[in-house]
């Protein structure tokens, strides 16, 4: 494959890719509403000559020990899997997640979160960065390769667009369990053109603190669960501090080098229904990052024990212990070796496209790469565009980074499938 020709093809296709990205972002694919965006993806891969499979997530997936705990029925919700090329030769899987996190803070955005807006080289909107921009970059790379070569694909290429990466991982797990695996996987997460090798374990917990409801004028004799939750919040802070104090003993230098890998995040707090009523219960939604050496069950047990210990001295909480329940993520940590051949191959492709060495790093978060590495015995890494404010206000992706990723991917793919050296 001629590099100059393929670079021209990427540049010529950029507008096509940005338009596709805008159409993906205009579909608000939050939990339970993924189908619209999935159909945009299905049409795009079909146009590129892929066979398209719509794969439902089995309702009993929660019985899989590697699954997250579903928060919603899987009725009418599905992964889209595109497959192309002969079943002989090398095989590769590209993975992107089509689900996006909600934009509850929509009124603080400069433009509505699901209305894609281009400004100063960036595309704004929920999901532009995490991670529809990466999906668009992958599609652009394939389109460019196809336009300069009819026979670059010497093996099986699978492009999976999954749901529920942001809460359970069950979309990728279901696709793998259904046999959609390959010799290696590349996830197109927003890594700022770096090579993301691994992540920590993550569990989600619902914590319920009971109070005693009453009219506000007798609140002094009632128990407000929002106020009663204080020792629980303190215990979670302390748990986080201890974990991060100890983590520098991690045998993997990439993890030991991280500043603050384990975040215990209070993501939601729900209590009450009326300013003049003392609520009966307060519910916290908490995300706990934990070391790779722990299983999900171990992490859940340790948080439960820390909360139990901290609430023992509180007369109300000792008599009404907070209830801790797992929900959503039960994600094990994962890591690709820093010098794995797959990482070297992506680094070579990046150097060839951009003339510089890409960073290789890990993060205090997770991606679906853990399933390929832990469950399916496949090397896997993430590589994708430069995004800003993912999961935040005014999320955006730098459009030039979408084409830059596509240029790297054209090198990576053509070498992987033997069409370039
Ligand atoms: Zn993501």
Helix content: 25-40%
Strand order of the largest sheet: 1-2-6-3-7-17
Our estimate of the beta-strand percent is: 15-25%
Shape: elongated
Query: Radius of gyration over alpha carbons?
Result: 23 Å
List low-confidence stretches.
none
What's the total number of strands?
19
Small-molecule binders here are: zinc ion
Word description of this protein:
It is a single chain. The chain has 421 residues and is of the alpha+beta class. Helices cover 36% and strands 23% of the residues. The chain has twelve helices and 19 strands. A six-stranded mixed sheet has the order 1-2-6-3-7-17, sandwiched between helices. A four-stranded antiparallel sheet has the order 4-5-19-18. It has a four-stranded antiparallel sheet with strand order 11-13-9-14. The longest helix is centred in the N-terminal third of the chain and has 23 residues, at 3-25.
Short description:
With 421 residues, the chain is α+β, with helices and mostly antiparallel strands.
Features:
single chain; alpha+beta; 4-stranded antiparallel β-sheet; binds zinc ion; 12 helices; 421 residues
Give the SSE map.
Layout: H1 3-25, H2 35-47, E1 51-56, E2 78-84, E3 91-97, E4 117-119, E5 122-124, H3 128-148, E6 156-162, H4 170-177, E7 185-187, E8 195-199, E9 201-210, E10 214-215, H5 225-228, H6 230-246, H7 253-256, E11 264-271, E12 277-278, E13 281-290, H8 296-311, H9 315-319, E14 323-331, E15 334-335, H10 341-354, E16 360-363, H11 369-375, E17 380-382, E18 387-388, E19 396-398, H12 399-416
Parallel strand pairs: 3-6, 3-7, 7-17, 8-16
Antiparallel strand pairs: 1-2, 2-6, 4-5, 5-19, 8-15, 9-13, 9-14, 10-12, 11-13, 18-19
Helix pairs in contact: 1-2, 1-3, 1-12, 3-12, 6-8, 10-12
Bound molecules: zinc ion.
């Amino acid at each position: 494959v001629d590099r100059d020709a393929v670079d021209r093809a990427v540049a010529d296709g950029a507008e096509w890719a940005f338009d596709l990205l805008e159409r993906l972002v205009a579909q608000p694919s939050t939990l339970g509403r993924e189908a619209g965006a999935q159909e945009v993806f299905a049409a795009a891969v079909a146009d590129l000559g892929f066979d398209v499979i719509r794969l439902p997530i089995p309702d009993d997936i929660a019985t899989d020990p590697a699954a997250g705990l579903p928060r919603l029925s899987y009725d009418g919700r599905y992964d889209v899997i595109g497959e192309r090329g002969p079943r002989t030769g090398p095989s590769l899987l590209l993975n992107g997640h089509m689900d996006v996190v909600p934009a509850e803070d929509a009124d603080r955005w400069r433009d509505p979160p699901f209305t894609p807006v281009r400004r100063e080289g960036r595309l704004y909107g929920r999901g532009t960065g995490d991670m529809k921009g990466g999906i668009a970059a992958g599609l652009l790379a394939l389109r460019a390769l196809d336009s300069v070569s009819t026979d670059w694909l010497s093996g099986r290429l699978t492009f999976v667009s999954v749901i529920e990466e942001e809460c359970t991982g069950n979309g990728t797990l279901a696709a793998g369990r259904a046999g959609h695996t390959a010799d290696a996987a590349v996830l197109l997460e927003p890594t700022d053109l770096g090579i993301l090798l691994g992540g920590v374990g993550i569990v989600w917990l619902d914590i319920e603190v009971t109070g005693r409801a009453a009219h506000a004028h007798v609140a002094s004799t009632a128990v407000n669960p929002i106020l009663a939750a204080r020792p629980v919040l303190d215990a979670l802070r302390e748990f986080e501090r201890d974990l991060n104090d100890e983590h520098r003993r991690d045998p993997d230098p990439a993890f030991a080098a991280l500043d603050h890998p384990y975040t215990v995040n209070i993501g939601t707090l729900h209590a009450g229904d009326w300013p003049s009523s003392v609520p009966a219960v307060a519910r916290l939604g908490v995300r706990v990052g934990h070391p790779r050496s722990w299983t999900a069950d171990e992490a859940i047990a340790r948080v439960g024990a820390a909360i139990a210990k901290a609430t023992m001295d509180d007369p109300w909480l000792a008599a009404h212990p907070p209830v801790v329940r797992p929900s959503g993520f039960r994600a094990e940590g994962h890591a690709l070796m820093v010098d794995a051949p797959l990482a070297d191959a992506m680094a070579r492709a990046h150097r060839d496209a951009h003339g510089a060495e890409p960073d290789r790093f890990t993060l205090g978060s997770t991606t679906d790469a853990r399933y390929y590495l832990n469950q399916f015995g496949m090397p896997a890494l993430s590589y994708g565009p430069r995004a800003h404010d993912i999961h935040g206000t005014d999320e955006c992706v730098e459009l030039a980074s979408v084409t830059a990723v596509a240029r790297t991917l054209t090198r990576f793919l053509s070498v992987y499938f033997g069409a370039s050296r």
